[in-house]
Fold:
Amino acid sequence: MRTRIRHYRKLRNLTQTDLARLIGTTAATVSRLETADMTISMDWLQKLAEALLVQVTDLIDSPHPNRVPCVGRVGRGGAFDRSAARDDDSVALDAPARDPIALRVGENLGAYCAGDVLIADRMPPEHTKQALGRDCVVEIDGEASGFGRLISSVDGRYILVPPEPGAPARQLPTPEWVAPVVMLIRYF
Structure:
């Protein structure tokens, strides 16, 4: 059975070794689970879903009505390579998140344009380390405290770097929740 384990592992910025530690196995086993080299049981799917913060059904690669086939790749100079498309390559139009929230960008901010919609995956504070190095919404003390690239400092506190160049970074205490961006929707 084909699964989407690799997709969600990479989405969470985890290596096979990281995921193996979370589910109590080896990186070699994770590799075999990702490539369908071994039969995957419901026990494995449940462990993986919990570690990857998704539903078990998200891990099962089945035909999905919100998937659009990818017909090729665009490269430098506007080159279009139809041969780069694979039969199993498609784009999901649903949010790859367990607890999705949406944000609308109000003005151009770094790589984000006014009108962009960001889909983020709200996570409890014990999963904050999985969001490091990613653009996130961070909430502290019941209010949205900021948006930016979440990094950690030497003393273990968190630093939020806003997306626009030259904006000052803010040091934050441990958040109530953090929501890393998992999807960008840009309308033209």
Observations:
- The mean pLDDT is 82.
- The longest helix spans residues 42-52.
